[in-house]
Design brief:
alpha+beta
Length: 116
């Protein structure tokens, strides 16, 4: 899967803009990106993560001060309560809901780092 993504990125001329990594089951392994990431897209994945607090903490550490996380979860597979629990885990990691844009019928939140 990652090799295919590398090929598609190269064909699109984006290989220098995309950092492709294989995450471990219990961590993303992005400690070296502290304060360097503009945007994280978590599309249909957060509900699959057992330790969501740790997941969001790693992401919060990697984000720039004005960085954002777009969380999109499937409309039928994830309950409203489950989605709100994920957002609470994000809040515990220092991420706040900045907006709730609409993307079809999905459950969506745009998260930003909490201000001082």
């Amino acid at each position: 899967m990652l090799a295919g993504l590398r090929r598609r990125a190269a064909r699109a001329g984006l290989e220098e803009r995309i950092d492709i990594r294989l995450a471990q089951p219990d961590r993303l392994g992005i400690d070296d990106l502290n304060g360097q990431v503009d945007l994280v897209l978590a599309f249909y994945v957060v509900h699959e993560i057992r330790e969501q607090a740790a997941f969001f903490a790693e992401i919060a550490g990697a984000l720039k001060a004005d960085g954002a996380v777009l969380v999109v979860e499937p409309p039928l597979h994830v309950s409203r309560a489950g989605f709100e629990a994920s957002l609470a885990a994000a809040g515990g990691a220092g991420l706040r809901v900045a907006r709730r844009p609409r993307i079809g019928p999905n459950k969506v939140a745009l998260l930003a780092k909490s201000g001082p």
